[in-house]
Design brief:
Blueprint (H helix, E strand, L loop, with lengths): L15 H10 L12 H12 L1 H14 L3 H28 L6 H8 L5 H38 L12 H19 L3 H29 L6 H6 L12 H13 L7 H4 L7 H28 L5 H5 L9 H14 L3 H34 L6 H4 L9 H15 L8 E4 L9 E4 L1 H4 L16 E3 L2 H30 L17 H19 L15 H18 L15
Antiparallel strand pairs: 1-2, 1-3
Keywords: Amino-acid transport, Membrane, Transmembrane, Transmembrane helix, Transport
Membrane topology: Multi-pass membrane protein
InterPro entries: AA/rel_permease1 (IPR002293)
Length: about 575
């Protein structure tokens, strides 16, 4: 595999003039301030991935579908193929270092005839997916804070405080506004938050990995951690291969958002090298740290049914309950467990900052190419060279998407298994939502639930589905064009994969194709309206709307990326 500093678009390190010249070759003038180095570029992607948060909030699904074996060993399988996606993206990023990223790549690789349509569909999948990702990142933070407060005030069984839906939405909106304010700062200050996110994810994971096994008085055996396969999921699914397939997906959800390095690239020095390195290193380090953190958490899992039980003190949030129990047994108090959970929560907060940063740069680039309604408004930059208008567009859209769950005040969970129904509990939606993970399809949390407002359930399912599969589709489309229509015409940048490029690219394409199928499988049997997997509906809706708008309107005026400089 070659990773050389030569080829089309190569520049000398730190040469801002060369970056400007390369951007001009791609058809754009420099409007954003180049204040990021390779470490800062990496930090934004690493902060969004935030494996502490990813592992923590998907852990319930991992325990339910396969348990320790599907998580610890499945992580390694997912890491390999996800690495192929990241490597292919990095190679294309090096060739086309522009904030448009994925949709621009598709336009350049699909061929002249198909370029506008390819760019349009890729861009809208990426943009809508990022809006949903921003929404669910902050919403998952609210839920984790709710669990911390619940445990700190006595727990679900001790009269602990449970906020109303209006308080939850108010806090969610406040977090979004705070993230908007941070992203309104000049890039040098925003870069500081990116560095803090990278530091927090590294140091936090290091502290927790050491602390968790040391504190626990009862620990799982090595054999249990790597070989125990849980088939008692209570979802009516008994086939081991099926369970394993669903369990593998939980690892995939923890590695998403690394396209941020591409979207921040017009603010990065030595762009065609720093951007690809940011993608690769963020994914590689997240993979390693995430697996170690996952193993450490699993070492304190000794009673899977209890951790998944919505009747425990953490209302069924497995990781929070496990940490709380471990510290309580050692010291007679669970405060240490709350502190550990708080470390994860602050990591999610910093991920939210990076989400808005990446989302706003994508929106800025897309509006620069006139692909968004009122593009002339969103394309404007402030005197600090920040795309201020689209930052606040991201905040507003994310909050509106959160309103889709406004009516889900209570749910009724039926604990089903192969045995007759024994009991039925009433809990608030906030007890369930911790299992939703900020970019996870609904199967992560569905435990054969009956919801008072089906419309609200469907809306939230649609949001998290678009945030996950929508992003992966936008990742793989330019890779697909790279290995097909542009197989012979592609001109690599300083970072390239050499003779392995096509093989790695096809591995990435086939992996995402497989994920698309797995995401769409039923997650419980018998299938009913209260456990139906709405992922195909949600993602199909985005596809239908994007293609429909193209056929009816956009094909008459959208011609792909627009040159805004004199060539």
């Amino acid at each position: 595999m070659a990773a050389q500093r030569s080829g089309a678009g190569g520049v000398a390190a730190g040469d801002d003039d060369a970056d400007r010249a390369r951007l001009r070759q791609l058809g754009y003038k420099q409007e954003l301030k180049r204040g990021l180095g390779v470490v800062s570029n990496f930090a934004f992607s690493f902060s969004i991935i935030c494996v502490m948060a990813g592992v923590t909030t998907t852990y319930n699904a991992g325990l339910r579908y396969g348990g320790p074996a599907s998580m610890t060993l499945g992580w390694l399988v997912v890491a390999f193929f996800n690495g192929c996606v990241a490597l292919s993206m990095a190679e294309i990023c090096s060739a086309y270092p522009t904030s448009g990223g994925l949709y621009y790549w598709s336009a350049k690789l699909a061929g002249e005839e198909w370029a506008p349509l390819a760019s349009w569909i890729t861009g809208w999948f990426n943009l809508v997916g990022q809006w949903a990702l921003t929404t669910s990142t902050d919403f998952s933070l609210v839920q984790l804070v709710q669990v911390i407060i619940l445990l700190g005030t006595g727990g679900a069984n001790g009269g602990g405080y449970m906020a109303s839906k209006y308080v939850v939405l108010a806090v969610h909106g406040s977090l979004l506004v705070l993230h908007g304010l941070i992203n309104s700062l000049p890039i040098r200050w925003l870069s500081w938050f990116g560095h803090l996110g990278a530091f927090w994810n590294t140091a936090g994971a290091f502290v927790l990995v050491i602390m968790i096994p040391v504190v626990a008085k009862e620990r799982a055996s090595v054999e249990f951690i790597f070989t125990h396969f849980n088939t008692d999921n209570g979802m009516g699914i008994h086939d081991k291969a099926y369970i394993l397939a669903l369990g593998l997906l939980t690892s995939q959800y923890s590695l998403l958002g690394y396209d941020a390095s591409a979207h921040m690239i017009e603010e990065t020095k030595n762009a065609d090298w720093s951007g690809p390195i940011g993608i690769i290193t963020s994914v590689a380090l997240s993979t390693v740290f995430g697996w170690i953190f996952l193993v450490a958490l699993t070492s304190i899992v000794t009673n899977i049914p209890y951790l998944l039980d919505p009747g425990n003190d953490a209302a069924g949030y497995a990781v929070a309950q496990a940490l709380y129990t471990a510290f309580h047994r050692r010291y007679g108090s669970g405060v240490g467990g709350l502190v550990c959970t708080g470390i994860v929560a602050f990591g999610i907060f910093l991920a939210g900052v990076a989400c808005v940063a990446s989302n706003s740069r994508m929106g800025y680039a897309f509006s620069r190419d006139k692909a968004m309604p009122f593009s002339h408004v969103w394309h404007r930059v402030s005197r600090n060279e920040v795309p201020l208008n689209v930052v606040w567009l991201c905040v507003v859209v994310a909050f509106i998407m959160a309103l889709t769950v406004r009516n889900t005040s209570a749910i009724s969970i039926s604990t089903r298994s192969t045995k007759p129904l024994q009991h039925e509990r009433m809990i608030r939606v906030k007890d369930l939502l911790p299992h939703l993970k900020f970019h996870v399809p609904i199967f992560v949390c569905v435990s054969c639930l009956r919801m008072q407002s089906l419309g609200s359930q469907v809306a939230f399912q649609a949001m998290v589905s678009i945030a996950t599969l929508g992003q992966y589709i936008s990742y793989v489309l330019p890779i697909f064009f790279r290995v097909t229509t542009a197989r012979r015409s592609f001109s690599p940048g300083p970072f390239h994969l050499g003779r392995y490029s096509i093989v790695i690219g096809w591995a990435a394409v086939l992996w995402v194709a497989l994920l698309t199928v797995l995401f769409s499988l039923p997650v419980a049997y018998p299938i009913a309206k209260d456990n139906f997997n709405y992922t195909p509906v949600a993602v199909g809706g985005v596809l239908l709307l994007s293609v429909g708008s193209w056929v009816l309107h956009a094909r008459f005026w959208f011609k792909g990326p627009i040159v805004n400089v004199d060539m």
